[in-house]
């Protein structure tokens, strides 16, 4: 015991972090690892199930009988539990941004294990998504203190959030019944849009249910309130819908593209829902709000780049790049085009006209 205390003190003095913060950091990192890996394991399970039955992308559910898919689900659950536990040790400003690491882990594992090409523009898009999401989360206000599930219900039934929920549900229904049957297999934003829209409502309901359970365990029984069970029903309905269309997206499109777009859209809409429901921006100054908006713009830039270049193949474009080795050794990189690889050519008088 004394040895452990000495080690803990040494770690604290060496890193400048408290022991609890270090525990939270390790839990958050393990959460990102499990969640990032779960996308890849689930994708492999979906491929294996699709080879033996009807693919999830065209309405099949054979993946429910595939152990590999369930292994991915378990990995995701373990990651979410670790993420939840991290908040018990470290502040949200430390834990939440680390969730963005799951994007990098997922993209790298997809490149290694699934042989899904991640080109330079995909890497840049991932970086923009991570930077934008991290900027928003780091400047998010502290959580509002809630004393009862009825207080959450009052917040959820205010006109502003009812309007948001109505718009989200209407958009989700239009995507599900109008666009998904026709464009779901060709437009990545259809399935991911459904997941993200419904997911923002699921997080608000999960938050409400978590508050109810926390208060119940502390001695204030919230299970007697009907609002608790309404939130429970919304959680189950939203998560089932969310996972169904996430499986379709993973089965249809490149995992390295699905993961960051889903993360950024889901995070953005969840923060927006929280701002409306819990009035987070009422407790912030204009500088903080502008910084968060810059984060949104960065996320949109990364999402756009990923979306527009997701089908790009190396050697699609012809370009000219001047590479200066040193002041005496300039070279011109000409190409590539769709027929021949890039090659270095020594500059001549004809090269410069």
TrEMBL record:
Top-level taxon of origin: Eukaryota
Keyword Ion transport attached: yes
InterPro entries recorded: EmrE-like (IPR037185), Mg_trans_NIPA (IPR008521)
Predominant cellular place of this UniProt entry's protein: membrane
Record's subcellular location: Cell membrane; Early endosome; Membrane
Residue intervals passing through the bilayer: 22-41, 61-78, 84-109, 121-141, 161-181, 188-209, 229-246, 253-277, 289-306, 313-334
Keywords: Cell membrane, Endosome, Ion transport, Magnesium, Membrane, Transmembrane, Transmembrane helix, Transport
One of the record's GO cellular component terms: early endosome
GO MF annotations in UniProt: magnesium ion transmembrane transporter activity
Membrane topology, from the record: Multi-pass membrane protein
Entry similarity comment: Belongs to the NIPA (TC 2.A.7) family.
Binding partners and assembly: Homodimer.
Function noted in UniProt: Acts as a Mg(2+) transporter. Can also transport other divalent cations such as Fe(2+), Sr(2+), Ba(2+), Mn(2+) and Co(2+) but to a much less extent than Mg(2+).
Protein name: Probable magnesium transporter
Organism: Urochloa decumbens
